[in-house]
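DATA SHEET
Item: assembly model
Revision: 1
Owner: S.N.
Input lines:
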Amino acid sequence: AQSVSQHNHHVILSEAASLELGCNYSYGGTVNLFWYVQYPGQHLQLLLKYFSGDPLVKGIKGFEAEFIKSKFSFNLRKPSVQWSDTAEYFCAVTFRSNDYKLSFGAGTTVTVRA
Amino acid sequence: NAGVTQTPKFQVLKTGQSMTLQCAQDMNHEYMSWYRQDPGMGLRLIHYSVGAGITDQGEVPNGYNVSRSTTEDFPLRLLSAAPSQTSVYFCASSYSDPTDTQYFGPGTRLTVL
């Protein structure tokens, strides 16, 4: 079965630090890649997505992600975090081999200290 | 637009009881889905629907039923609640398929004693 792995369970940072969250997925043919975020008390929402083209994708709130096909990875980055980036971040993938049903990673809780 | 709404927000059940979690969207989306979120496991797909009258099983369908009689509503029924169903349940909708941006509801926190 296809799977999505997020390397870090909980990341604690200070404001202005750089953030990188890892995401790897198992082979499943054609994939579409997503990062969703859940801020405290808010609904899950889309940060960014990648379908094809430029492997460096820019999303909302200064986030970007890089698709590296050879490594089956889609890591999320932000050069300088703010306290308001405290949230839970989920990597998600649709696999053609799974009829494009959305599979989520376990999530990474990011705490930014002021 | 209200987006995706879910009721109730919290629920406590006893083992063996049944209940229905409600989900509604006002965006005229065709694709709707239910997920459960458990610590360390992310969100897992329970059931999904690609349009009114069409439903299918996801990754963890056992113990749950769904129906889709209208485009707007997609209720999730727990037939006989078990402690293993203690979880947070999210409903989501998107324009036509799972590769579209998913819009999530606020979630229902369910505890089964």
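QC remark: DSSP finds no helices and twelve strands in chain A.
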